[in-house]
Design brief:
The complex is a heterodimer of chains A (220) and B (197). By secondary structure, chain A is of the alpha+beta class. Chain A has 11 helices and 6 strands. The chains are: A alpha+beta (220), B mainly alpha (197). At the A-B interface, strand 5 of A face helix 2 of B. Chain A: GO terms for molecular function: Atg12 conjugating enzyme activity.
Chain lengths: 220, 197
């Protein structure tokens, strides 16, 4: 029964490869990054998000002092629309970087992430806790230190925020058991990421779920 | 970086005379390189998180999850207040294993080298081989860090250090895990170049 609950590292890598294949089809920019010694690696995605002034107001004058928005290739803004610039200047663009790694201790995937403003200033753990969606806030407040903490990235060695993996089996086991019952193929990464991602602002387009069942049909 | 101070010493300054002189900085915190330490709660959370991970490896988390919150608190308070007996009253349970087994499920260890980009090596490794033989420290290194193993007839290139000493490579890993782990229940192993004096 143990095999139902945990996934091995090879299975993890296989599901990541399938996940990335679909990501490439829909232009979702997930990619695989091997470690320097190539013995393992992780999935990585970067996206940009605007936080409105009210959420970040506790940061003070520096945010409102900005009159022009730093330009990043991936972020497009209609520059000739003055009204839009003025609104955006009072906001902040935040760069989120998400990494999916494999934990051999818990034998499950783990979500690492970091966030910074475009000038490189990182968000603090407090900023991250405050940014968690309302519907997950209660759970977070029950045990913030058990949920999202700052840790050393096991491959890069830099500080990242981590969503604790110790409860992963609790919610993944029913998903896996049910998929076996109805004889349906499930991509572990898709299911897992669709559950944990939204807690930290990462959402998956629905087409990922459909992609898995299509693969199944092709296999037949 | 939230590492035990003894590990930092072994890894970075083992040839220094004691007391170890360090420089404390109050400006220019290197955000990209170091974890913040906002409060005592953060340290407790990090310590307990390592404990839980170690037990996930040793006992599939069964022993630590069966404990009550007050037992977890006792581990932390025992460490914080340097109360050996208080700490070990609970920690001894994390060092037990079923009578029918010869050791833990997997050994919690991390191998550190300053020469690699990866901060540490951590992999699944069983203390007992299929034939019942106990794996040794040498077996572990050969399997997960072969570059650190000195050739048999060659010169000794590296020191394999735990708590400032070099255990014999023939030492059973299970024994090391029970007796030479750090309070977080991990074996933190440093591989450093052999000093050339």
């Amino acid at each position: 029964m143990e095999e139902d609950e945990f996934i091995g590292e090879k299975t993890f890598q296989r599901h990541c490869a399938e996940f990335i294949k679909h990501s490439q089809q829909i232009g979702d920019s997930w990619e695989w990054r091997p470690s320097k010694d190539c013995s393992d690696g992780y999935m990585c995605k970067i996206h940009f998000q605007i936080k409105n002034g009210s959420v970040m107001s506790h940061l003070g004058a520096s945010t409102h002092g900005q009159t022009c928005l730093p330009m990043e290739e991936a972020f497009e803004l209609p520059l000739d629309d003055c009204e839009v610039i003025e609104t955006a200047a009072a906001s902040e663009v935040i760069k989120y970087e998400y990494h999916v790694l494999y934990s051999c201790s818990y034998q499950v995937p783990v979500l690492y992430f970091r966030a910074s403003f475009l000038d490189g200033r990182p968000l603090t753990l407090k900023d991250i806790w405050e940014g968690v969606h309302e519907c997950y806030k209660t759970r977070l407040l029950q045990g913030p230190w058990d949920t999202i903490t700052q840790q050393e990235h096991p491959i890069l060695g830099q500080p990242f925020f981590v969503l604790h993996p110790c409860k992963t089996n609790e919610f993944m086991t029913p998903v896996l058991k049910n998929s076996q019952k109805i004889n349906k193929n499930v991509n572990y990464i898709t299911s897992w990421l669709s559950i944990v991602g939204p807690v930290v602002g990462l959402n998956l387009p629905l087409s990922y779920a459909k992609a898995t069942s299509q693969d199944e049909r092709n296999v037949d | 970086m939230h590492y035990p101070i003894g590990l930092l010493f072994d890894l970075l300054a083992s040839s220094s005379a004691l007391p170890w002189n360090i420089t404390v900085h109050f400006k220019s915190f290197p955000e990209k390189d170091l974890l913040h330490c906002p409060s005592k709660d953060a340290i407790e959370a990090h310590f307990m998180s390592c404990m839980k991970e170690a037990d996930a490896l040793k006992h599939k988390s069964q022993v630590i999850n069966e404990m009550q919150k007050k037992d977890h608190k006792q581990l932390w308070m025992g460490l914080q207040n340097d109360r050996f007996d208080q700490f070990w009253a609970i920690n001894r349970k994390l060092m037990e294993y079923p009578a029918e087994e010869n050791g833990f499920r997997y050994i919690p260890f991390r191998i550190y080298q300053t020469t690699t980009e990866r901060p540490f090596i951590q992999k699944l490794f069983r203390p007992v081989a299929a034939d019942g033989q106990l794996h040794t420290l040498g077996d572990l290194l050969k399997e997960v860090c072969p570059s650190a193993v000195d050739p048999e007839d060659g010169e000794k290139k590296n020191q394999v250090m735990i708590h400032g000493i070099e255990p014999m490579l023939e030492t059973p890993l299970q024994w090391l895990s029970e007796h030479l782990s750090y309070p977080d229940n991990f074996l933190h192993i440093s591989i450093i170049p052999q000093p050339t004096d």
